[in-house]
# Entry
Amino acid sequence: MSIARHVLRSLRRPSSTILGALLLALAAGRAHAVTVSPTALYISARNPSGLLTLINSGSRPEEIEIGFGFGYAGFDTSAAIKVTVVDSAPSGEPAVTSWLRAFPRRLLLQPGQRQIVRITVVAPMGLNDGEYWGRVLIKSRGGEPPIEQTQGQVKMQLNVETTFATAVFFQKGELTTGVTVTGASATRLKDAVQFTIDLQRQGNAAYLGRVRAEVVDSVGTVWGSEEDVTAVYRGIRRRFVIRADTPLPAGPLVVRYLVDTDRPDLPPTGPVHGAPVTGMTAVQ
# Structure
């Protein structure tokens, strides 16, 4: 699910002293002028390799370097989705990061050029059944000329490096997934309802699906609905503001919700499918 793009801007003096900082953003589909597909790579123990396609759609050559990291979708205190990618996985995480290899690892991509990169997994013997996660980091630089800045008597150049992170799922043996709802609440706003749902993953694979929620009155009339994709790796909180086209009635309302693995944006083979979950919660 989730896709992170990191933008590294390094301020360099003529002496090459780095004065800059790292900016982190979320995005999808493009890394600078380089298009990367697919956005999620599924690799099995039976066929431990997969292919990424890189295309330079810009007008300048791009220097490409392939790296690896670890990270998955979580949430902050406001229930906003966040993906933090780190070099190595914390202890206990089902990480594939250290087993990943890329061929080629470095290349120069000319304007209009297409390049296939093979990603392989060298897994240890005796690995338990389950799904293991990682990120392929496609670092791209050189597609834009440096931006010059002056601070006092010092002239500096702003060089832009962009990294597109595509998710990798390594799958071995029998896989299962599912979710349980550990909490749900709904609060009436002026002309909307704020709906919050807490999901906890079950099984040994990520639950990649969607959440659909609708506001319903006592006679079954639907006053508004919202739907969004979700990825439950461990546990996650999703929050929706369900807006009505007309003022909400004064009587009792409920939010009726559905969580399932119906994701048309993902390939039909690869993601593990789980049972749908339905329920409802009263609007306060």
Q: What stands out?
A: The radius of gyration is 22 Å.
